[in-house]
Every structure is written in structure tokens, then in C-alpha cells.
Amino acid sequence: MARIDAWTALNERLIACQACPRLRAWCEQVGREKRRAFANDDYWTRPVPNFGDPQARLLIVGLAPAAHGANRTGRMFTGDRSGDWLYRALHKAGFANQPTATHIDDGLELYDCAIAATCHCAPPDNKPTPEEIAACRTWLTQTIDLVPARVFLALGQIGWKSVCQQLRERGWLAGRAMPKFGHLAEVPLADGRWLLGSFHPSQQNTFTGKLTEPMFDAVFARAKELL
To answer: Is CB count within 10 Å lower at the N or C end of the chain?
Structure first.
């Protein structure tokens, strides 16, 4: 119960964050202008909190909320194509109770899995600045401090870099060089922990075939093996 309470308190602080004026202004602008398909929706527009099981052994770290996905729905990877890919794969691997994520009250639950981000506000062109990533680091730090993760899964190269920095600061990642990112990249960490890499399930990767469903499923199958 103490960890669950701490998770809730962390998310409440995160949602209230105003550290990056450019991102706050952009998220609110998107929420006013909206996309035609979501014209009747009330956009979330605030920093998007972590989602999932605060006692998870699998921690997934993505890049940032999508402007008309999580910035609209208020939940990580919910209401966009990337989320369609992620939750289908999580459900198939047994980490989610259903394969779809459409809105915050759709009944989705994660088992032994939590989702965080490098940046918790939707950035223009999906590109947060280095300064904005640095300002958001505290939330990932606090999340890793709280969640008893044994496997860290980074979606994309920016997520990989963010996680590696966190792991090195804790003394869990050996060596001075950054481990090379790649799909199904695998790095052993201290005390039986593991770092995994995956191409991000963005449309840029899924529409071009750079990431396929079997490739994505293999990542979560490997995560289960390591756990």
C-alpha cells in the first residue's frame, strides 16, 4: 500500500509540472485547435502521468505523449496507432488484460508492467529539446526509485539513452561507453537486472515495415523469459 500511495503522489506531482513553458503552451494549443476526428473531445493537455502497476518488474520507457493521443486522452500510449501496437503486444504477452486502449476509462489494466516516458508533455514534431528532456529527468528518476523493475525496456534511441543514464547513475550499468541501441538489444545489469531495446512502435517504423508485429512480440517474449 505504501508503494501504491507513493505512485499516486508521484503522478499527482508530475501532472502539476510547469517546468517547460514551450511544451505547456504547445499542449494547450493542440487541445484548443484539436483534430477534426476528435472535435468533440475534451483534451487532457497536462503532463501525462505514468501508467500501470507500481509493483511492476517490467518498466517500459517511451519518448513522449502523442499530441492527439495521450495529450488528448491523459493516459500513456492511449488513443493512437503506437498504443494500438503496444497494448496488442502487451496483451499477447500477458502484461495487459485487453489488447486495446481507446480512452482513460476503458478498463485497461497492466500486470507486472508500468509505462513511463523520457518527456511527459507532447512536444512539437515529437522532438523535445535537450533542455526539456533534462527538465523531465526528475520524473524518470523518481519512477525508477519507486518501481522494483528487473527489466527495463527502452522504446527508441532517445528512451534508450535516458534509461542508460539512469542505470549508470545507480551503478547498475557497467562501463563508460553507451551500449549500442538496436532492436532486441540486450544488456545485463547489476543484481540480475536487464536492459532491453526495441524500435519505437511509431507510424514511421510500423508503416515502413522497420518494425513488424513478430519483431515487437519477440521483445516482450524475451522480457518474460528474463523475468
So the answer is: N
Handedness of CA 72, 152, 161, 171 (dihedral sign): positive
Instruction: Kindly report the average pLDDT of the chain as a whole number.
Output: 97
Which of 160, 161, 164, 75 lies closest to 122 in space, CA to CA?
75
Q: C-alpha angle 118/124/126, rounded to 5°?
A: 45
What digits encode the pLDDT tens for the residues 112-121?
999 999 999 9
Fold of 2-226: Uracil-DNA Glycosylase, subunit E (3.40.470)
pLDDT tens digits along 133-157: 999 999 999 999 999 999 999 999 9
Which pLDDT band holds residue 175 (cuts at 50, 70, 90)?
confident
Residue 13's identity, in one-letter code, is: R
| Domain limits, the chain | 2-226
Indicate if the pLDDT at residue 194 is higher than 90.
yes
Q: Report d(CA 16, CA 138) in Å as an integer.
A: 14
> Would you call 177 exposed, middle or buried from its count of C-beta atoms within 10 A (0-12, 13-18, 19+)?
exposed
Could you read off the pLDDT of 28-77 as tens digits, one per residue?
A: 999 999 999 999 999 999 999 999 999 999 999 999 999 999 999 999 99
Check: CB of residue 113 under 8 Å from CB of residue 60: yes
Q: Give, in order, the Cα–Cα distances in Å from 116 to each of 71, 138, 224.
A: 14, 12, 19
